[in-house]
Every structure is written in C-alpha cells, then in structure tokens.
Amino acid sequence: MRRMLAAVLALLFLFAGCARAAPLPEDEPPAAPARPEGYARSLLDGEERAAYDELCSAAEGWRVGEEIPLASPASARTIQAAYDALLLDRAEFYWLRCEIPAGERADRFTLAVEEGLTLPAVRERQRQIDAAADALLDGMEGLPAPEAAVRAHDALLRRVSYEEGAQGGDAGNLYGGLVRGGGVCGAYSRAYQYLMQRLGVPCAFLSGTSVRGIPHAWNAVKLEDGWYYVDATWDDLPDETGYLYHDYLLVTLEEISLEHFPEPGQYRELPPGDSDCYSYYRQFGYCADLGDPDPVAAMAAGFARRLADQPLPAARQPVFLEIKLFGEYEAFTRWRDIYHRDIFPLLRAVSARLEEENIPVEIDTTGYIEYNYNDNTQVLTLFPNASASV
Questions:
Q1: For 3, which DSSP code?
Q2: Distance (Å, rounded) from C-alpha 166 to C-alpha 13?
C-alpha cells in the first residue's frame, strides 16, 4: 500500500490557468531555451549522438514536413535510437514523429506532427507551456539545484491534480501537466522534467510499472553529488488537499526500486543514485538518525523543526508534520513501534523542545491524533492539533 495506516484511540486515518504569452507571428517560432544534456543522449554512441543532435536541431527549429539531409548517412537502427533518446530527454517533443526512407542506410529524414495535431496548434501550445512554466518558476532562477528540485516539486503539486482513469489525449504529457493542470503520472513526470531542465538541472524521465502492477512514470534528477529519484505523482494525494507530501522527493535508487520497476531496455543503464545528502528531509533537518540512543527525543527534534518552519493557524487545528528516519530497515521497524506506542510522550517532547527554543506554539498532547508511516521510504507523518500561541 502507498502508506501504512496507524491509528490512535478512536480514529482511523483514512487513505486511500496560467498566463498566456502574446502570440508570435507564424514566421517567428519561439526560441528553445538552452537545456542541460539529456541523460539518454549521454548513453548514445558517437554516430547515434550525431543523429540525435540533427533531429533535435530540426525539431527546435520547427522544420516540420521538409526533407532534412543528414550530415552523415546512418542506419535506420541508429536514427531510431537517436529519436527514442530525444523523446525521453525532451518532454516538449511529445508531438514529434520522425520518418526515414526504407533501406539499410538513410541520408535524410522528415519530421511530422502526431495525428490529431497541426504545426500551428503545437506552436501555440508551446507558447502556453512556456508561459505556465514561467509562472511556476518565478523567483527560482539561479537557485542551487537541491533547493530548486524541492521548490519546483512543490510548485508543480500546487498546479497539477491527478485525474483518476484519464487516458489518451494530453493526460500523460507535458501540455496536460503544465497547461491543463491535470493528468496521470506521465503529466506529472514530464512537467517536472521540463521545469528542472528550464532551471538548468539535468532530469531524466523513467517509465515502467509500479509495485501495484500498473503502468507508471517518475524522474531522476542530477544534483551536485549524483542522481536522485522523484515521484511527484505519489507525493500528490488528492484526498489530502492542502498538504504537500515529500516521501518520494530526492530518494536513492535503492529506495525507489522497492516500488518502481523501469521498462526493460528503456535506458542502457539507470542513473546511479546512492547518496542521501540532498534528500528533502536532510536538507531541512526534518529527520532522525536511527542510531540515536533516545528514539522519542530524536523524533521529537525532527518534528519540532518541521513545525517551527511552517506558518501556524491562529485557532487550533490539525497541522501537517513529516520526518524521515535514516538507517537500516530493521532499526526502523523498532522505531516505528515506538512511534506507534509513544505518540503522546512524543508530542509532549515536541512541545517541550519548542518551549526551550522560545517558539510560541501550543500543541494538544492528549485526545485524538492522526498519524501514519511509509515503510518503504521510512517517513513518519503526524497531524497534531496545534496553533500559534498568543
């Protein structure tokens, strides 16, 4: 299950437009912003990379419907590999088809638009995509990559809503995610890829199946010390309006691989990712080390930090807290049992810690509490009743 339920006392925790750019004349196609090298391109051999670059240049120049000569003739397999890699790397080319002459080697290719679209419509859509991206990324230019990865994730989740059962059309592409503001996992992951690339951060798109046995898509993003994995879709719980989850933000390859299974052969190798230095929870201190000798105090410190970093309501109501426990799974299960057993001592420890730091917060430490935990990401989530004290 996406999240494991834990209940206290009488309650069961229940699971389960944008600005539009001014039109450009048809003879002035919008310029494509520079992008970091795509991960799929980095895995190609020299001949494939040359074909990739020619395809990419033609697509960026909107050279649709004309025969374009290749600088060096290439096999159909080479051109197909280049085309497949380009579609993986560039979310904005969701509309693109590539036609090559029959035969062992080709000296030209032709770009076309997917059925149901026209070139003028695609160009207008790109203007809308960029206007939406500009609005979401406002103020993020120049941020360090780890912070940009978090802020783009949160901005996207405020923009996109999951559309259960949506199929076809724009439900799984960049236009659906950024402009329509709705779709399935493909819309989330393609939108996140595009936003990160706009910020100059390499971001790969991955697809395959989830642990639930259904098609799924997610991302890998390259930060200072390597690749991290992101599943924005699973961080968006439509029945939890107003809460931004981060369970699947900047996790390791080992963690994501517990529930995500890439399509075989999609990449020649997966982006390697074994660091948790820039995990969302480490970045902000919303975490605890499973080697700490005092589990309650360690968890309280993480929750107190999370609580202190968010605006609090004037009237007491549930607030959203989350921390991650870093360490071996066997130790996590022991701490999870302590969490389940000692919720009220934990809340009293949180309250005492905030009082020591002169942070004016009032927390209910008795009564009814909602909480849950994710066994795969080792994230604890807590919803205590709290308010800013006067």
A1: S
A2: 27
Please tell me whether residue 67 adopts helix, strand or coil conformation: strand
- Lowest mean pLDDT of 19-23, 176-180, 362-366, name the range: 19-23
CB 64 within 8 A of CB 96: no
Cα 150-152-158 angle, rounded to 5 deg: 105
Whole-model pTM: value is 0.90
Distance from C-alpha of 196 to C-alpha of 221, rounded to nearest angstrom = 8
* 193-196 CB contacts, 8 Å cutoff, 24+ apart: 193/91, 193/219, 194/91, 194/92, 194/129, 194/133, 195/133, 195/136, 195/137, 195/152, 195/155, 195/156, 196/148, 196/149, 196/152, 196/221
Q: Round to whole Å and give the CA distance between 376 and 312.
A: 29
Give start and end residues of each alpha helix (H) in the chain. 39-42, 46-60, 76-89, 119-136, 145-159, 174-175, 185-198, 253-256, 280-284, 295-308, 329-341, 343-356
Burial degree of 382 (CB within 10 A; 0-12, 13-18, 19+): buried
Residue 231 sits at the vertex; the CA angle it makes with 228 and 234, to the nearest 5 degrees, is 150
DSSP for residue 34: P
Interval 317-321 mean pLDDT: 94
Apex 48 CA angle, 106 and 78, nearest 5: 45
Contact in structure between 173 and 90 (CB atoms under 8 Å)? no
Question: What is the end-to-end Cα distance of the chain in Å, rounded?
Answer: 41
| Order of strands, sheet of 215-223, starting from the edge strand that comes earlier in the sequence | 249-251, 226-230, 215-223, 203-210, 260-262
Token digits of residue 169: 């059309």
Contact present, 253 and 269 (Cβ < 8 Å): no
pLDDT in tens, 60-78: 999 999 999 999 999 999 9
The per-residue pLDDT for 31 is 54
How do residues 25-53 score in pLDDT, each as one tens digit? 444 545 555 789 999 999 999 999 999 99
